[in-house]
Amino acid sequence: MRVAVVGAGVAGLTAALRLQQAGHVCDVHERWPGLGGMAATLDVGGGHLLERYYHHWFTSDRHIVALCEELGVGPIDWHPSSTAFFLEGRSWPFTSPLDLLRFSPLSLRDRLRMGLAVLRLQRAGRPVTEYEHETARAWILRQMGERPYERVWGPLLRGKFGSRADDISMAWLWGKFMLRRQLEGKEAREEFLGYPRDSFEPLWTALQQRIEAGGGRVLIDRPVARIERAERSGFTVHAGAPQSFRRGHDPRAFALAPEGPEHYDAVLATVPSDIFRGLLHDDLAAAIGDDYLGRLGRAEYHAALCLLLELDRPFSPYYWTNIADPQIPFVGLVEHTNLVDPARYDGRRFLYVANYVAPDDPLLALDRDALLAHYLPGLRRVRPDLDPSWIRASWLFREPAGQPIVTVGYHERIPPLQTGVPGLVLANTTQIYPEDRGTNYAVRLGGEAAQELLLSVGAAAAGPA
């Protein structure tokens, strides 16, 4: 069977690997001139690679660690993490239980109540289904009280989800509390995070090599522009011309590749829901049906907006700083070289300025220099002596479908992997539930999507019972 995989992110590459291992040939089409999706790397000079968006692995991330072991990629280094909340004009350490007890923006009673609420949730081990019909706001107010919501959780939710903050399902927050950190051994006292010693790029290269060894192709800077049903069976796939990424994300804006369409027996798409809808020819959309298309249309995303700075000195003592100050126009600071030793980069230091914004937010229209100028007052609020001369270089990245918005009842709106058309499968971040999107769960999703594609084709070949 010949399969077109749409998207060379983690899920797409993993799905192609699993299909190749099952004896099928895959062509992977990718819009961006690089592999890994939101975990794609960039060359920051001096022979060093960094991910365009900040990434690390938790000790609970068994799927991607197992994939690295399977492909012989490594080693993975595990580093102690450090976290802070920026509030009331200073950064408060928030790494250990003792840090919570010292967090004076809340009263001692509120601190104890907040910590006990999280501990009870983690120890009780109740399934996510018990939290799917309640907002995170309602749960926090009931379990922790008004002050923790006003000072900590409310600002964080508003920073990530904007006007939708009060609608976010407790199921989403349950995933944050329950699935990321091990509660046994030394991690009960200190969190450890993993990062591959040579960046994520060796993993993408190893996946590409395995796919191509099975007779497939990994086609970067060559997106899919349209998918049609073929006359007899299978699908006709029209590729976009090189440099299509400069036209944005909408496949309807891509010029078609001059070599013309290709025929595939099956298609596995790993693109966001709105992009998938834009790929479908009218006849194929009609075959999928209104119910599935409606689920695609109800998917909501916030855009990821990430400014990467190279600095000539440390910015803070922390790896991860959550911003709970409403006057600061970004949601987090991720100082990569406070996790990974800067000696790895010849002493250079890198800081990600993280943000999530609504699709129509004016910040998305700013170029790199204008966004940095907009952020500088907020950066100085965290580090008052910051001088622009400290900034040696900067890079800006935007991802329209950076964060699915998980509201109450979300689980009822998730589109299935199988579209209802045999041989056509969709796997994207809206289906990673109750976990949040991330490379670990994308590996799992890619494997599940490959299985569903084979089941779909097998059922169609068997015919009616």
UniProtKB/TrEMBL annotation:
<dbReference type="Pfam" id="PF01593">
    <property type="entry name" value="Amino_oxidase"/>
</dbReference>
<feature type="domain" description="Amine oxidase">
    <location>
        <begin position="10"/>
        <end position="454"/>
    </location>
</feature>
<dbReference type="InterPro" id="IPR036188">
    <property type="entry name" value="FAD/NAD-bd_sf"/>
</dbReference>
<dbReference type="InterPro" id="IPR050464">
    <property type="entry name" value="Zeta_carotene_desat/Oxidored"/>
</dbReference>
<dbReference type="GO" id="GO:0016491">
    <property type="term" value="F:oxidoreductase activity"/>
</dbReference>
<protein>
    <recommendedName>
        <fullName>Amine oxidase domain-containing protein</fullName>
    </recommendedName>
</protein>
<dbReference type="InterPro" id="IPR002937">
    <property type="entry name" value="Amino_oxidase"/>
</dbReference>
